[in-house]
């Protein structure tokens, strides 16, 4: 059975994308569990510094590959240094906090890791070029990532034994990888585009290795819905405001095919939040335009912020997640 077939989105679901503001792991875990209701997530707190950001955290999960922070960004090294140890320590702190607030929890529980293509575009090999440029380096990275994610999921399964784990792969640079827009370290050139079949195959191998349903998230424009579904993604997470008419057919096909759709509709930075039902009015309108069954809306679409909330105030971050939960409920209570 595929990951996609195994995953059923809870009715009226809402969750966070990943990052939250501040540096307090316990408070972040409390918010991630209490504000979302039926779909908590493991928060990331990039304000703590390198190693707490999504790239650094994921590099800290790698097995037998180590990275350190250089002036140009993250670069592979020969041994685990201060940055790797710090990333792992912060992840352990976050897991301890989440475990505390999910005692007895039964239901879906989301964790995030950076996907292989964005990670390969974001970490340099020893010669100063992105791992994306070297197929051998990419294969090593993908293999190490798959193993590291497996260990991470096993650890979380021990901590929250009744939770149904869901993995989110963050791929904000995926479209740039496909279109040859990833810049070199100098900034004067871009790396050659990667063939779509190669990208799809790489994602499929990681998704199959995960052993849990996998959502792929990107808050960039032109998310390749069809490619991600073919790779085995059980869900697609995106900034709804960036959808254009050329995305509508792929959106509709995903909905009809049972792929969970995580619509980012709430701003990631402090904004006025007044009408939860109004926040998802565009989702309702597109659903009607595509002729999809109204009764399926609340069990097909989850509501999230448009992207991470690291740049928001703590009060707004909590309010935004509560707002998402109310908006998701409105899709169930009033799908039309």
Describe, in plain words, how this protein is organized in 3D:
The structure is a single chain. The chain is α/β, with parallel strands linked by helices and 336 residues long. It has a single domain (3-333), classed as TIM Barrel. Helix content is 44%, strand content 15%. The protein has 14 helices and 9 strands. The strands form 2 sheets. Strands 3-5-6-7-8-9 form a 6-stranded parallel beta sheet. A 3-stranded mixed beta sheet has the order 1-2-4. The longest helix has 25 residues, at 135-159. The protein starts with a helix and ends with a helix. Mean pLDDT is 94; it is low at 1-5.
Summarize the structure.
The chain has 336 residues and is of the alpha/beta class.
Keywords:
single chain, 336 residues, alpha/beta, TIM Barrel, 6-stranded parallel beta sheet, 3-stranded mixed beta sheet, 14 helices
Main beta sheet = 6 strands, parallel
* Sequence of strands across the biggest β-sheet: 3-5-6-7-8-9
How many DSSP helices? 14
Structural class: alpha/beta
Shape: globular
The level of helicity is 40-55%
Low-confidence stretches: 1-5
Number of domains: 1
Gap between N and C termini, in Å? Answer: 33 Å
Q: Give me the strand/helix succession.
A: HHHEEHEHEHEHHEHEHEHHHEH
* CATH topology grouping: TIM Barrel
Do you know the CATH architecture?
A: Alpha-Beta Barrel
The portion of residues forming beta strands comes to 5-15%
- What average pLDDT do the residues reach? 94
Round the Cα radius of gyration to an integer and report it.
Answer: 19 Å
Number of strands: 9
CATH class: Alpha Beta
């Amino acid at each position: 059975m595929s990951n996609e077939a195994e995953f059923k989105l809870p009715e009226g679901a809402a969750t966070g994308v990943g990052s939250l503001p501040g540096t307090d792991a316990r408070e972040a875990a409390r918010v991630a569990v209490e504000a979302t209701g039926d779909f908590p997530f493991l928060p990331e707190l990039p304000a703590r510094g390198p190693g707490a950001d999504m790239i650094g955290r994921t590099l800290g999960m790698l097995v037998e590959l180590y990275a350190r922070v250089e002036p140009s960004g993250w670069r592979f090294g020969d041994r685990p240094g201060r940055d790797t140890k710090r990333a792992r320590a912060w992840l352990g702190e976050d897991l301890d906090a989440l475990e505390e607030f999910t005692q007895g929890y039964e239901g879906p529980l989301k964790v995030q890791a950076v996907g292989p293509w964005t990670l390969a575009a974001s970490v340099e090999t020893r010669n100063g070029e992105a791992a994306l440029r070297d197929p051998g380096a990419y294969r090593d990275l993908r293999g190490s990532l798959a193993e590291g994610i497996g260990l991470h999921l096993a650890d979380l399964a021990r901590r929250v034994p009744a939770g149904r784990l869901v993995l989110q792969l963050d791929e904000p640079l995926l479209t740039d990888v496909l279109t040859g827009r990833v810049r070199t370290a100098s900034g004067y050139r871009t790396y050659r585009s990667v063939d779509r079949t190669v990208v799809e195959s790489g994602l499929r191998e990681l998704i199959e290795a995960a052993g849990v349903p996998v959502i792929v998230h990107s808050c960039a424009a032109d998310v390749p819905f069809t490619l991600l579904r073919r790779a085995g993604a059980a869900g697609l997470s995106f900034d709804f405001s960036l959808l254009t008419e050329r995305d509508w057919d792929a959106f509709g096909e995903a909905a009809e095919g049972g792929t969970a759709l995580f619509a980012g509709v709430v701003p990631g930075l402090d904004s006025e939040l007044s009408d939860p039902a109004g926040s998802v009015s565009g989702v309702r309108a597109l659903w009607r335009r595509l002729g999809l069954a109204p009764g399926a809306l609340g069990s097909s679409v989850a509501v999230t912020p448009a992207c991470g909330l690291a740049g928001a105030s703590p009060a707004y971050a909590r309010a935004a997640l509560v707002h998402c939960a109310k908006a998701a409920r409105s899709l169930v209570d009033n799908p039309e």
